[in-house]
Design a protein that fits this description.
Layout lengths: L1 E6 L2 H35 L4 H20 L12 E7 L4 E8 L2 E8 L5 E4 L3 E6 L4 E6 L3 E3 L2 H7 L4 E3 L7 H11 L1
Parallel strand pairs: 5-9
Antiparallel strand pairs: 1-2, 1-8, 2-3, 3-4, 5-6, 6-7
Amino acid sequence: MIEFYGEISLPCKKKADKLRKRYYAVWTAVLTVIVGALAVIAGFTNGQYIMFTVFAALLLALTALLFFAPTSKSLAKEQWLFRVQIDIEEGVLKFTQYAGGREIAKKRELARVRKVVKDDRCYMLYVPNAGSLVICQNNLLKKGTFTELEALFAGKLYKEKEPKEGKDKKEREMKEEK
């Protein structure tokens, strides 16, 4: 049994929010391409291409907004309290969210986890129909080990790339020098 329990930190919330927005941006981009193709077809067949073109432009604007939108400032005020239990013997992932005085529980098979992305703060498990993303923050590990978790998802584990040049990398280098 591997268990994570506690409140998710602000950096992990921001990362999850960014990934969620990018996920929706991809779907709106696909829809934009479809509507754009309909506009082209309607233009060749003397149909209502203006309506399709305007709709495609609105979808394109929504896609750009979702893709480049900053994280919500209200994330700092929100409380994300989760319990993630990974039962290795049963092959089950149990995900419980405690929000607004109520408990929302979901249960999925471990085989349904599509991929696991690891960074320096957390593991992000991509699970269909479980809110798409399950966050396992490193400092919230209560039972089990990271070695067990990584061995369990060996073929699906991806490590997030280090940032190239930027503020975070420079700050880390300065701390290492001290």
